[in-house]
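Reviewer 2 asked us to include a model.

Predict the structure of this chain.
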Amino acid sequence: MADYEAVQRGPLRLKGGGAGLGAGKRKKKKAKDKAQILEQIVSSKKQEEEKKRGLDKRTPAQVAYEKMQEKRQMERILKKASKTHKQRVEDFNRHLDTLTEHYDIPKVSWTK
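Predicted model (structure tokens):
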């Protein structure tokens, strides 16, 4: 029994733990009104839009270029979305059938 007299009794304490905040004690968050939160979000979006207008230093050519890029991107997406996976696989198989046999992987067999 003399071996265990130096053992600390009681709960374990974490290093750097503040003024007795344990795992069971948590700070309560202040309840905010949902309308107030929505109002803040809307006002922040309006402010961002105003900043974008004021900070838009692009030339008309740059603006037109970006619009065309977005338009082409949308066309690519719609083109890919128009076919199902099954249709794409069938098209790919048709393409492979038209290729010459040169591209086929030769069968390797050590027994024959």
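The mean pLDDT is 80. Residues 65 and 71 are 10 Å apart (CA to CA). We have added this to the supplementary material.
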